[in-house]
């Protein structure tokens, strides 16, 4: 089984660079506007886009993404809207993923959500609060629908946890660079590179290599270049959301988002 995510990550590997992965909540600030912002992200150089499913209890998200998701929730964004945005994202040519806490998916119906997500052309889903040991229903449904599934590892993950998680993932492994919530930071956590090395080493002997992508705290082209030196993908979310929050209108938001994506895209291609 190959998804567009597999193809995109393989292409960036062949180009000798890390993939640029952007995140935006669906429905932020409206469903239509979130599509236009994602189009700007892709035009600026995002290879993969994570479409967030806004949730009322975002335990891993910092204040910026919480604000963005809150705007989307106040606008009445539903899981069906999220699927519409995922479909529009796939239509840009980028690899599309949904990122969602588990409760909304469980409420929607796991098998139904997998079937509906696959129908959008998206590649799969990231589930930040779901452990592989508790993901039996999602593993079964994602297998049946041909979807990738991405679980998270963190600096605190034991070697056993890293092995369990990497072997349950398909598409890539999401390496959270630090213990904490999402948000921009002055520098990337020093634990990130070690976590990438440990995660790669945890893969079962003889198994195909699985990309490891790093998120949490990346907010500049220089930081993107730093992470791209040891990871297969660079994940940025709060920086995109902040530019929309700061913009005076949607035209300004799209312009700022595209310029930021271009800065990050140059970073992941830097060879110095």
UniProtKB/TrEMBL annotation:
Keywords: Amino-acid biosynthesis, Aromatic amino acid biosynthesis, Lyase, Tryptophan biosynthesis. It holds the Pfam family Trp_syntA. Tetramer of two alpha and two beta chains. This is Tryptophan synthase alpha chain. It catalyses: (1S,2R)-1-C-(indol-3-yl)glycerol 3-phosphate + L-serine = D-glyceraldehyde 3-phosphate + L-tryptophan + H2O. It comes from the Bacteria. It comes from Lipingzhangella rawalii. Pathway: Amino-acid biosynthesis; L-tryptophan biosynthesis; L-tryptophan from chorismate: step 5/5. The alpha subunit is responsible for the aldol cleavage of indoleglycerol phosphate to indole and glyceraldehyde 3-phosphate. GO terms for molecular function: tryptophan synthase activity. Its EC number is 4.2.1.20. The keyword Lyase applies. Belongs to the TrpA family. The active site is at residues 50, 61.
